[in-house]
Structure formats: C-alpha cells, structure tokens
Amino acid sequence: MSAIIAIPAAPVTPAHSAGLPDTLPDQRDAFDHLIDANEAQIVMLLERDLIDPELARRLAIALADYAEAESAPGAERNAGYLVLEAALTEEIGPDASNLHLGRSRNDLGAATNRMALRQDVLQVAAALHEVRKTLHELAGQHVTTVMPGFTHAVQAQPTTLAHFLLAFDAGLGRDAERLQQAYARLNRSPLGAAAITTSGFALDRQRLAYLLAFDGLVENSYDAIVVSTADSKVEIATALSLSAISVGRLAQDLLFQYDDPAPAIVLAESAAGRSSIMPQKRNPSMIEMLRVLASEVVGDAHKATVYVHNTPLHEVRDSRKYLFDVVHDVSLDAEAMYEQLGLVLTSLEFRVDALRERVDQDYSTMTELADALYRDARVPFRDGYRFASALTTFGRERSLRPADISYEQAASVYADVLDGGQLPLSEARFKASLDAAAVVAGRAGRGGPQPAEVRRMLDEASAGNTLFRRWIDEQRQLVEDRRAELDRLFSGLLEQ
After folding, report:
1. Which distant-in-sequence residues (6+ apart) come within 8 Å of 213 by Cβ?
2. Domain check: are 281 and 221 in the same one?
3. What is the domain range of residue 382?
4. Which residues contact 264 (CB under 8 A, 6 or more apart)?
5. Are residues 386 and 302 in the same domain?
6. pLDDT higher for 279 or 118?
7. Residues 110 and 167 placed together within one structural domain of the fold
8. Do 274 and 390 sit in the same domain of this protein?
9. Among 64, 143, 203, 470, which is disulfide-ready with 162 (CB 3.0 to 4.6 Å)?
10. Least-confidence region, from 1-10, 282-291, 373-382
11. Helices (H), 141-272
12. Contact, 200 vs 492, CB < 8 A?
C-alpha cells in the first residue's frame, strides 16, 4: 500500500464568517490605503505647482499626525475621506481642503478598492501556488499507480492517479492564468478621473498611478468611475468561482466512493470524523468542509454578479462599496478553500491495491482490445469493437473478470461475432490487451497517462507554478518598492 498520511489541523472555515481578522499582520487595510493615496496626492499636487511648498509641508505634517493618532491602540482607523479632511481642517484650517483639488471620493474610493483587491488577489494566488506544489508532490509519487477513469459515473478506461491529479491541476493552472490576467486589468489607476469627467486642474494621473504602484491608468474617466469599477471586481470573483467549481467537483468525486465498504481513496484515521453513536463510522467531514468552502466561493461570486447586473451606468453604491465587500469575501473564502484543499490532499490515504482491483474487476481495457486487433491484424475497428463488446457481455453474464476469460472462450466469441472468423491475436497478445498497467504504459498520445508523458506534464506544471510564484513575488516587491519611494518623498516634505 502506498499512502500519504498527515495529522491535519482543524478544518478551515471562511475568515469573514468565523470572526477571524480579514487581513494578515503584514497586510495593509483600508485606512492604510487611504493614507497612501493622500500622501501621493500631496506629492503630486506640489510637483504640479497646484499647492505651494508651505501648504504641502503643513498638509504632510497634519496627515502624518492623523495617521499616527488613528493607528494608536483602540483608535477607530476610519477609512472615510471626509473624516480625514475634517481632522486636517481642524489642525491647519480651511486650506486643508485643497488636498482634494481635482479629486472626488469617487476616484479616491475606486483607487483604494483596487489597492485592497490587488492585495487580496496576491494573497489568494500565494495560497493557490502552495496547494499546487502539494498536488505536484503527490502526483510525482503515483506516476504508475493504476486507477479507473470514469465517464457518466461508469468506469471507462484505466489511467493513473498522477494523470488524474494532473488533470485537476491543469484546471488550477488555468485559474492561475485567470488571476494574473484579472490582476493586470485590476491594477490600473482611476485617480484623477474625479467624479466622472476629470476636472479643470491638470492633475498628473500617471504620476499618481506610479506612486501607488499601479501599472497604468483606466484612461477613460467615465469608464474609470462607472464601468470598470464593476467589471474589474466581478472578474476576480468569477475567476475564483471557476476555480471553486473544479475544487467542489474534486470533493464530490472523493465523497462518491465512500459508499464502498472498502474505498480506495480515504482520509487517514487521524483525519476522519467519528460518529457519536456508531463506532464503526469514519466520516469524511474534512472533504465535506472543502465542498462547503467551494460553495461559499461560488455563492458569493454569484452574489457579486447579481449586485451589478441590473445597475445603471452611474456611480452607485451597489458597484462600489457593497460589491467590494462581496468580492473581498470571495477572496477570503477562496484562500480558505485552497488551504482546506491542501489539508485534504495531505490527509488522504491511497490504497493502491484496491485501486488496481477496481480496474481489474471491470472491462475498461476493451478499447485496447479493439485497437490491438487493428494494429496486429488490420481488423476494422468497428468489427473489433463488436467483438470486444460481445466479450464484455459474455464475461459479465458469467460473473467473470476480464483476466478470467480463457483464450479459447475469447476465440469462440470472436467466431460467433465475425461469422466463423479466427481470433488473429496470439494468447499472449490477447492477455496483454486486457492488462491495465500494460494498456496505460502503451498509450501513445500526447497528454496521455503513459509514465514518460505524465512526467513531462508534471515537470511543465511545476515549472509553470514556479513562474507563478515568481510573478506573485515580483508584484509584491513592486508595491513595496513604490511604497518606499512614496515614503521617501513624503518624509522629505515633513523635513522641510
């Protein structure tokens, strides 16, 4: 028996529904994003000569004082701009409102939403990278582990556990691509769009985008406030929903076979739940929790679509605050889902002998028998198909496994089906065409379960996942570098 067994932690639950903090200690919250955006605004206004150096200095000092006071233990850390402006006005007077020249809460809120969501995307992406690493390690241990493949919930053809796992991983690879593509469209700055039409002040939109680590602008100012503020959020939720659909299907696949008294893939004893009354029960609660989390992602993502599908092309709260909150929840749920998936994968026990036994009990090698007849004797495929189908019926009616059918019995069936024809395969070739391991090893198509092809796909998937991690780190580093540059420029104002 080959098995991977781990003692798991408690099942993960959605952070927003479990009372856990919405951000990790090294993450920035909505208040931090508000402060960053206003630091960039002061720097840009001074560089464009829209405020004089003295006002820039006074604004910078007042903003720094406010940020420090609101970051003290027990402070509210209110992320509303008007609250901030009122505090600055109290400290330096009416000139504090000049901080808002050429700007609206519309473009400011749209920008800070994007700053928060790009952080969410990178956090979820990191969790996706980690669970793919786990999958690749698992697949690497089971390149030759034969298992049944299914279509229509019926055993269809033999494959390998690694082939199956890499099929699931291929979907996760597409999820990674979708997150990268969504991030590229998300990480665009709406700042300077003001309410919807920019303003009479020549704000340097590109400079604001640069200082806040955006990759460019949402150029059309109406789009920046009205159109893209909805689709950029829903795109993230949709990408994660697609991933959750695959994860939920995997969970369901694992749960299906639990009705077998001796399932071939089970949670280890240490990871299984227990009945309070039935001592024999070993419940797959951890897998059920995975399915719940996947459903949370799909459900909240659908809610995101519903929130905006019938809103007008106006700046409305549906597509700003409420949509942001929902998509943030989707991100938290997705991160928890990937963590739970990792726990499940490292807690599974694969009963290799039982997997092979399930294959050997059924007739999933019959396609190879028909193929062998064509390869060896040029028997037309449909004639070989008719023979293999009749042989299946013959064996099942007699409760025989394929390996139990004698060469003589097969020859007799062949003669009956093909009008007295002689079975043109040797006994050794006939038996080899029924052997699942030989069938798998003999696959010739690109992307098949043969070991060399599986190892190639595994290497490529692992390399792609490494590049995905590099992309995550590069995006995080870019944000940190731009923040450091902004801090240096802003600190210079404080020292004047």
Report:
1. 187, 478, 479, 481, 482, 483
2. yes
3. 366-434
4. 147, 257, 350, 351, 354, 355, 357, 358
5. no
6. 118
7. yes
8. no
9. 143
10. 1-10
11. 161-186, 205-211, 221-222, 228-256
12. no
> Mean pLDDT lowest for which of 25-29, 162-166, 379-383, 486-490?
25-29
11 falls within a domain: no
- State the pLDDT at residue 20: 32
pLDDT of residue 9: 35
320 and 372 assigned to the same domain: no
CA distance 70 to 91: 14
Tokens of 387: 């023979």
Closest CA to 69 of 54, 91, 50: 91
Query: Which DSSP letter does residue 262 get?
Result: S
Q: Is 399 left (phi over 0), alpha (psi -120 to 50) or beta?
A: left
Q: Looking at the domain assignment, is residue 318 inside a domain?
A: yes
Q: Is the pLDDT of residue 343 over 60?
A: yes
pLDDT digits (tens, 9 = 90+) for 117-160: 999 999 999 999 999 999 999 999 999 999 998 888 888 899 99
The answer to whether residue 32 is domain-embedded is no
In CATH, what number is assigned to the domain containing residue 477? Answer: 1.20.200.10
Give the C-alpha separation, 252 to 288, whole Å: 8
Same structural domain for residues 111 and 164? yes
Q: Is residue 40 part of a domain?
A: no
User: Is the pLDDT confidence value at 446 over 70?
Assistant: yes
Closest-CA residue to 7 (of 338, 396, 348): 348
Q: How far apart are the first and last CA of the chain?
A: 72
pLDDT per residue over 219-240, tens digit each? 999 999 999 999 999 999 999 9
Shared-domain flag, residues 371 and 347: no
- The structural domain count of the chain equals 2
Average pLDDT over residues 364-391: 95
Taking residue 436's Cβ as centre, other Cβ atoms within 10 Å add up to 25
Judgement on whether residues 344 and 377 belong to the same structural domain of the protein? no
| Spatial CA neighbour of 41 closest among 60, 28, 18, 27 | 60
Distance set, CA 375 to CA 79, 80, 380, 384, 424 (Å): 72, 74, 10, 11, 11
Checking 254-261 for CB contacts under 8 A at 24+ apart, the result is 254/284, 254/287, 254/344, 254/348, 255/284, 255/287, 255/288, 255/291, 256/153, 258/284
More confident position, 120 or 319: 120
